[in-house]
Amino acid sequence: MLSRLLVGLLWLLHFLPLTVLARCGSGLGSAFFRLGRRRRHIVLVNLRLCFPELDEAQRQDMARAHFRVLGRSMLERSLLWWASRARLSRLLRVEGEERMRTLLAAGRPVLMLTPHFVGLDVGGAAIAMRFDCASIYAVQSNRVFDRLLLRGRQRFGDQLLLSRQESVRASVRAMKAGRPLYYLPDMDFGRRDSIFVPFFGVPAATVPGLARLARLAGAVVVPCLTRILPGGAGYVVTVGEPWQDFPTDDVEADTSRMNAWIEAAIRTMPEQYYWVHRRFKTRPEGEPRPY
Fold it and tell me: Which positions ≥6 away from 190 have C-beta within 8 Å?
């Protein structure tokens, strides 16, 4: 019952102008910062590990800013679920779209590197509105929100949703069939299938799937970042230049290159990275657990 009430509230909120919805989301995030002791702790540990050059007050300020934009992303997701295509088109600006079209027209499989910034669902909707694409979908434990998330993912275009449990072959087939794969490889999925490479100078368990998928599909890697703009200014999705000389014969070097690129992207909008994830929960043998 509570889930349905929350869904009803989100449906009502999507009618608000984005300027008002953004203020509501920022307020919700500020409340999470004060009340969400465990998640606040995770964020501050991550920031301490990744930004040792900042003092504690600066990291507290960054954490507050993160929770505000996280709250925005939660409420503004209602737009992706119910707002019209026309309204979303006014709010979403895509830069570099022609790069993808050129690659696809040339018959090149495309693997989109999309790190876990809080606006990634907005970016996914923007890509789905323009291309028949594929993405990985993780089933949610709450059935009401699982159905809602699935519906939101499938509103635009002919999007192929692949389960994390499906074989790599499904992703490779999708790319070879001309579907860009919206791929998020930057979370800690445990020791299995991961290697330790630096992330902000800290060894981080990282799935080396970007290089392996690119090799198997003969795909070109195209980075894609989504930035939530201040207030009600909307969102910018940036499709970057295709990576050259990737992959190589060195999977570890390729995965390190990916993490280094993500680091550089984070430094352009550090409050918008998904810091509530325990990125360093899996440690090399003998290292203490930071959380």
Answer: 205, 282
Other Cβ atoms within 10 Å of 58 Cβ, number: 12
Measuring CA to CA, which residue among 68, 69, 74, 67 is closest to residue 44?
67
Between the alpha carbon of residue 274 and those of residues 65, 72, 184, the distances in Å are 12, 13, 12
Residue 239 β-bridge partners? 224
* Residue 28 tokens, joined: 């919700």
Segment 83-97, tens digit of pLDDT:
999 999 999 999 999
Beta bridge partners of 221: 111
Q: Where on the phi/psi map is residue 136: left (φ > 0), alpha (ψ -120 to 50), or beta?
A: beta
Domain boundaries along the sequence of the chain: 88-272
Are the CB atoms for 272 and 76 separated by under 8 Å? no
The residues near 44 (Cβ < 8 Å, ≥ 6 apart) are 59, 60, 63
- Beta strands in the chain, from DSSP E residues, in sequence order: 92-95, 110-113, 134-137, 160-163, 181-183, 195-199, 202-206, 220-228, 235-239
Tokens, residue 190? 């445990």
What is the Cα–Cα distance from 77 to 90, expressed in whole angstroms?
16
Check whether 40 has a pLDDT greater than 90: yes
Nearest to 122 by CA among 61, 175, 55, 73: 73
Element at 26 (helix H, strand E) = helix 18-35
Range 13-49 burial, b when 16+ CB lie within 10 A, else e = bbebebeebbbebbebbeebbeebeebbebbbbbbeb
pLDDT in tens, 201-254: 999 999 999 999 999 999 999 999 999 999 889 999 999 999 999 999 999 999
Encoded amino acid at 60, one letter: Q
